[in-house]
């Protein structure tokens, strides 16, 4: 059984307890598992069962489990709850999780829920909701431990003991001066290991970077990754500390951004939903747009074939190799574009290195072309035993490999240069571009060789 | 300027200091930046400059910077160092980073370096090197804080203060019983917030999972992500605690695994190197294998075309639509395969749900087929104004969409079922399968409609 999904094996047992109305037993049963396992378990149940099980959870567990659900699952559950319960849950949630939930809810629900919150929580929620989507401001929580420069280590520990219980992390502490400007950062490790009378000032490190509320969440992720941080501070335009982003949220961002790139590269217009929760027609729309665009682009291939129809009808055997040649060209292009797109995304290559990348990939295209040209010649000889057509097919594939590899390399870099996301250079897009050029190369070479 | 790569702007200044031999100034200059920035900076320099700058670093900074370099960069630097310096660096490195380095070095270098280490470090390095590649055992560090069940909170704090300085994290502490078996986990937060005389037993939580040294690193990553952990304990086959895996290593694993999947899905035989550091011919080999396999597979398309050569030569206009039909079929297949592969990788869908996935994707294929069939008919009417061929092309694309979408859905699930990695179902593989079926569909429909 899968270690990560192990809890699902208990589903039938729980369903039985529900149908037998063994609610007391079920309640006791639910005390033990980790909230993350209860959340996975809830996903396995029908809506009615889900509400029932959720109601049986202890108050603290309920809050933890609720925070681990996706916003649309939370919305679903909230519909069944009394105002008092909703208020309780919303107040206990971390501000960053609450923002994520409110962000997904319909406007009238948001207004109703915001009215349930006490004024200071409402103000905070409004503030966080005002940052742009996918920004550091949206991702951050306002529940950090702030220390003052002139505190002693023992005063700092005292403050951590007082405020710690509701803070998302107490391991990284942020040191501000008297005006609230971020001065630097210290860790609970340094505090614990320092003598009680030492000043916080002496164990504070300057930040090597500053994250603004308006920065993209991807920048926040890269910074946390680069400096191996547990949390990164976020400041407003005046440099005042307003919140922190923790590493667990960044893990989700890295995962999401990779999924987004996977989808873009398969020519799907960025679905941002979980596989099953995404709406069928929304996803249909996101897939069909690119497909239709590419069909229209592919008519160019039709036009090329039409213009060579005389050659084609006199040597019909030339058509046999069209799928292999265009296919291989597209495959080579999608290999090189994937290598370049991913290396750009992870920062392994930067645009400054474009010449080195291009040189490497042209050389790679030439080498691939030589090898594959020979292979294609052999394949033709097996299939038709016609030397002239064999040479045509081999030479064409050699040229196609060079062109395909270069197109796959240049197109994502061009997108990056135009400040578009290189991940939009999908394999289908490259394949369509390479198809047309492959046909022109093939028939030009065929015209020369066969008329000799 | 890019926030993550900002430090690169200082490169020219540093290069100037080196060429002017302002070494004292350079040494002072290097005191301030974060080790991660110095590591990025070193990458911008020539090898000679790199060694020079590294020698100017303070001892602690040098160790931190060294740990942040990639194994091959470390190897490069080590060549220039005296045995004393190498020994110093190796001994100060965290055991998990040291394993990663030793893992990449040639065998004779590993032996030489291991001899430099004191016996206990050598034994530990040998132990870690014996775990399989990409396993939890390889990724873990042995430097964790272990507490005993019967300690009081103040004794635990005392122990943390004593052992803390060399531990990779002190925020999660592992509680073992008298035989060294892992009993549970507690956090520095709980310890700090508890009264001094409380027993550790009372603030220890059981682990909801157990990671073994032989588990894949991906399982470790998923568990840390699921339970929002800063570190996860790893036990041996007897349940004895042997090490921990920290969240910063997991962030790198998530990133690497995504890159690996990107490459597999573009039919590149898993290059595990950074873009530029990968050897040209190794990468060539990894790319050419799949391309050759797919060329041979594509000869099937040639055979299909050959068997329909009579139909083709009598209606040559049918060839015009071959690239569009096979291309669109491939695009649809790579959309659905990407959706399924990624959802399987992130755990959004499990194999138990195969029927629901298949149902959804067949429905999607039918809908896409209806829409795209009409589009294809219109495209033909623009290009040729031949109603019969228009109907042929439209009907063919409708069927191709359904088949392509289904092939893209079923193939990765089949791979998963056969315990192969679904990410090997690359867009090129799908495209090649769909090409052959598309041609058969197209000519069968053409044969029926045009002979009417």
Describe the structure.
- Two copies of one chain form a homodimer.
- By secondary structure, chain A is mainly α.
- The first copy, chain A, has three domains: 6-131, MgtE N-terminal fold, CATH 1.25.60.10; 145-246, CBS-domain (Roll); 280-450, Tetracycline Repressor, domain 2.
- Chain A is built from 21 helices and six strands.
- In chain A, the strands form two sheets. In chain A, strands 1-2-3 form a three-stranded mixed β-sheet. A three-stranded mixed β-sheet of chain A has the order 4-5-6.
- In chain A, helix 18 crosses helix 21.
- The radius of gyration of chain A is 30 Å and the shape is elongated.
- The mean pLDDT of chain A is 87.
- Chains A and B meet through helix 3, helix 12, helix 13, helix 14 and helix 15 of A and helix 3, helix 12, helix 13, helix 14 and helix 15 of B.
How would you sum up this structure in a few lines?
2 copies of one chain form a homodimer. With 452 residues, chain A is mainly α.
Supply the key terms.
homodimer, 452 residues, mainly alpha, Tetracycline Repressor, domain 2, 3 domains, 64% helix, elongated
**What's the CATH architecture of the largest domain in chain A?**
Orthogonal Bundle
Order of helices and strands of chain A: HHHHHHHHHHHEHEEHEHEEHHHHHHH
Gyration radius of chain A, to the nearest Å?
Answer: 30 Å
Q: Which chains make the largest contact?
A: A-B, 123 and 122 residues
What is the β-strand count of chain A? 6
What is the chains' assembly state? homodimer
Shape of chain A: elongated
CATH class call of the largest domain in chain A = Mainly Alpha
The low-pLDDT segments of chain A are none
Average pLDDT, all residues of chain A: 87
- Spatial ordering of strands, largest sheet of chain A: 1-2-3
Strand portion of chain A: 5-15%
Compute the number of structural domains of chain A: 3
């Amino acid at each position: 059984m899968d270690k990560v999904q192990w809890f699902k094996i208990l589903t039938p047992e729980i369903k039985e307890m529900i149908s037998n109305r063994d609610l007391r037993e079920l309640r006791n049963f639910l005390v033990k598992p980790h909230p993350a396992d209860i959340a996975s378990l809830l996903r396995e149940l029908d809506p009615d069962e889900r509400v029932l099980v959720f109601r049986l959870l202890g108050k603290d567990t309920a809050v933890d489990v609720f925070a681990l659900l996706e916003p649309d699952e939370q919305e679903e559950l909230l519909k069944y709850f009394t105002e008092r319960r909703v208020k309780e849950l919303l107040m206990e949630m971390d501000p960053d999780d609450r923002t994520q939930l409110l962000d997904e809810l319909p406007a009238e629900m948001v207004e109703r829920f915001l009215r349930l919150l006490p004024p200071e929580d409402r103000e905070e929620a409004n503030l966080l909701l005002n940052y742009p989507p996918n920004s550091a401001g949206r991702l951050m929580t306002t529940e950090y431990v702030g220390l003052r420069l002139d505190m002693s280590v023992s005063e700092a520990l005292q403050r951590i003991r007082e405020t710690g219980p509701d803070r998302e992390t107490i391991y990284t502490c942020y040191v501000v001066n008297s005006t609230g400007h971020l001065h630097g950062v210290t860790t609970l490790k340094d505090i614990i290991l320092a003598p009680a009378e030492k000043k916080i000032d002496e164990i504070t490190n300057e930040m090597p970077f500053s994250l603004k509320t308006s920065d993209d969440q991807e920048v926040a992720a890269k910074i946390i990754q680069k400096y191996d941080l547990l949390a990164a501070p976020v400041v407003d335009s005046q440099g005042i500390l307003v919140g922190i982003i923790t590493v667990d949220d960044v893990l989700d961002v890295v995962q999401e951004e990779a999924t987004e790139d996977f989808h873009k590269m398969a020519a799907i217009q960025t679905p941002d939903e979980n596989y099953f929760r995404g709406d069928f027609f929304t996803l249909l729309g996101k897939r069909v747009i690119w497909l239709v665009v590419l069909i229209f682009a592919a008519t160019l291939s039709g036009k090329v074939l039409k213009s060579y129809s005389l050659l084609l009808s006199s040597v019909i055997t030339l058509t046999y190799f069209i799928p292999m040649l265009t296919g291989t060209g597209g495959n080579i292009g999608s290999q090189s574009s994937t290598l370049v797109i991913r290396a750009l995304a992870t920062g392994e290559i930067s645009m400054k290195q474009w010449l080195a990348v291009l040189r490497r990939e042209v050389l790679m295209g030439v080498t691939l072309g030589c090898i594959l040209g020979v292979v294609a010649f052999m394949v033709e000889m097996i299939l038709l035993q016609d030397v002239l057509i064999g040479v045509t097919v081999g030479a064409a594939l050699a040229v196609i490999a060079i062109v395909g590899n270069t197109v796959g390399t240049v197109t994502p870099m061009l997108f990056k240069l135009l400040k578009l996301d290189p991940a939009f250079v999908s394999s289908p897009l490259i394949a369509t571009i390479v198809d047309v050029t492959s046909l022109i190369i093939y028939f030009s070479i065929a015209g020369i060789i066969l008329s000799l």
